[in-house]
Amino acid sequence: MKKILKKISAAIIASTTIAISMASISSSITASASTLENKTYRIYFDVSANSGVCDFSCRLTSSSGVPMSGFINGTLGGESRYQLEGNGTNSILLTHWGEQDLTTPGTLFVVGLVGRNINSPYELADLTYTMVQNYAFVTLPHSRVQTSYVLIGDVNQDGAVKQDDLILLQDYLNGTATLSGNALRAADTDGDFGISEADITTLNKFLTGKLINFSV
């Protein structure tokens, strides 16, 4: 009954959308391989400790269709899903339904976007928040859910995916380099929420033109 009420409540909540501003991610691709012009971004939707968030939804919109390459649940349980809206795939509604107010930090869900010859994920789709609330349906500040835009394969965080990133990833696995934050997420080239030799293999395939895009 609680879940049914939550869905009914969400349906009648006014979608007060607030555009999420994003810092531009520079692109300085120097490699000649045409596949390096392809970019795979992951958008991580995260909450901090004691966020109190239970339910969350947002919308990705693009006039030419949202180039979403994948969608996966995060690390906090609950139910996450996406739904195509409008004509074709011009708009996608992303939703997370929880069973209780969250107290632990983690990721609600992850979305993948793909593009070619772009400088920023903002060129691919616009993002607006439509709902952030707790278990009692009380609206919470949008800042309770943070977004991180990660260019997959860009391990050294210079805005491009190239041989230097492969070397840094190898050094990290050998224990001679450290990675944290978005650099660590960018190193997860196979999208399994971990770093291993498989990520080196995946990144090498991309750099040699054997892989067009990374998975989410």
Which labels suit this protein?
single chain, alpha+beta, Immunoglobulin-like, 2 domains, five-stranded antiparallel beta sheet, 4 helices, 30% strand
Can you characterise this structure?
This protein has a five-stranded antiparallel β-sheet with strand order 1-8-3-6-5, covered by helices on one side. Strands 4-7-2-9 form a four-stranded antiparallel β-sheet, with helices on one face. It is built from four helices and nine strands, in the order H-E-E-E-E-E-E-E-E-E-H-H-H. It folds into two domains: 1-20 and 38-151, Immunoglobulin-like, CATH 2.60.40; 153-216, Type 1 dockerin domain, CATH 1.10.1330.10. 19% of the residues lie in helices and 30% in strands. A hairpin with a 5-residue loop joins strand 5 (79-85) and strand 6. The chain is α+β, with helices and mostly antiparallel strands and 216 residues long.
Write the topology of this structure:
Elements: H1 2-12, E1 18-19, E2 38-47, E3 55-61, E4 68-73, E5 79-85, E6 91-97, E7 106-116, E8 126-133, E9 145-151, H2 163-174, H3 181-187, H4 197-207
Antiparallel strand pairs: 1-8, 2-7, 2-9, 3-6, 3-8, 4-7, 5-6
